[in-house]
Amino acid sequence: MSKEQNRSAFAISPAKSRYILNSIPTVIYVLSVTPKGFSSQWVSDSVKRILGYDIEEAMAPDWWIDCLHPEDKKAAVEQTSVLMSRGHLVQEYRFRCKDGRYLWMQDEASLLRAPDGRPKEIVGFWTSVTDRKLAQERVAQASGQGVGLTEEELTRSNNRIALQLLIAALIIGSLFLLLASRGPLLFGGLSIIGLTGVALGIILGLVMIWRVRSSDRRFSHILNSIPTVIYELAVTANNFRSQWVSDSVKRILNYEVEEAMAPNWWVHCLHPDDKEAAIKKTSILLSEGHLVQEYRFRSKGGDYLWILDEASLMRGPDGRPKEIIGFWTDITDRKIAEARIAQARKLERERARLIGSSDRNLAAGAMIAGLIIGSSFLWGATTGGLTAFVASGAAGVMLLGLLIRSGKY
């Protein structure tokens, strides 16, 4: 079916056209351009479903201006000059619903001119982008605007201090023993335990310097009209058959209308992980008459977009299923934002765990370092002092091993 045939097939049903215009998840409006400003001519019934206002209320003078959020009003009104000069405008602002809530709206407007070139009327679309805006705000809050990197560095800093305390204690404590002229296990006047401790401390220090440099390199970096495709399917005995699809399929998914009308096109473009579930849910549409689902869908360029698919079943006079009218809306931005929220929360939990662990490591390192130095300095080379030194030194080496294996230093 050609694009012209596709349009004509849709145009022969005025009732169906009205249904689509009023069911689409967008408010459509028409304004006339007058010398004094803009005058409302028409607004779709969806203004009631989306914003809560009756059509008569939405047609009142200055209704749009009165409902703009105070912080967005000046900029939104000033942007209308762009529409008059360029013929097209897309902007986002907060708009008050009838119940007092504010929704984030994307307003896409186009200027239509008369045959003599003078501005005649404006046709526009309001689409709620509140979910995307809220998700983006949650991402910003959860990520703390880069706080995660600071916390990671804090964790590593604490663990580095613990490592440095332990290694320094091993070296200092061992030097006390090394220079002692009495006690067991002497060789050439030097304490074998002290000599071993100094060598071990130096080796561990060198290993830590090398690992820190490698770790720092590894962690030095962290981290287009209506946004909806409208479609119509005929319900047959065996399946669904494409009857019509809006031209926006080209702008949003980059497919030509003819390609989108091909048999099994929808099935072939579903993401492999979502295909089975999406197909199975069509039974809900036939039984309940309405279906809303989300899935990934392949664009012509090969990328997958997250699509919100809202479909309604239309029945014939005899009550039998006749056709399906649906809308695809690109919700990829919202899904990406939600994924970032989940990742940020995961990082936050990991951050809390690492900070707690690093604090414990710091305390343990300081305590063991104190025992190492205390046992070597206060008790010297006595049997009790050597025993305490060896025990605390062994505990220190074990903690060093755990910290080095963790890679968080």
Q: Could you explain the architecture of this structure?
A:
The protein folds into 3 domains: 105 residues, PAS domain (Beta-Lactamase, 2-Layer Sandwich), CATH 3.30.450.20; 151 residues, no CATH class; 103 residues, 2-Layer Sandwich (Beta-Lactamase). The protein is 55% helix and 23% strand. The longest helix has 46 residues. The strands form 3 sheets. A 5-stranded antiparallel β-sheet has the order 2-1-5-4-3, with helices on both faces. The protein has a 5-stranded antiparallel β-sheet with strand order 9-8-12-11-10, sandwiched between helices. With 409 residues, it is α+β, with helices and mostly antiparallel strands. It starts with a helix and ends with a helix.
Attribute tags:
single chain; 409 residues; alpha+beta; Beta-Lactamase; 3 domains; five-stranded antiparallel beta sheet; disordered N terminus
Low-confidence stretches: 1-12, 145-150, 214-224
Strand order, sheet with most strands: 2-1-5-4-3
What is the arithmetic mean of pLDDT?
A: 74
Q: Mind summarizing the main beta sheet?
A: 5 strands, antiparallel
Sheet-strand content, in percent, reads 15-25%
The figure for the number of domains is 3
| Multimerization status | single chain
- The strand count comes to 12
Amount of helix? 55-70%
Q: What is the overall silhouette?
A: elongated
Order of helices and strands: HHEEHHHHHEEEHHEEHEEHHHHHEEEHH
Counting helices, strands and paired strands, the structural category is alpha+beta
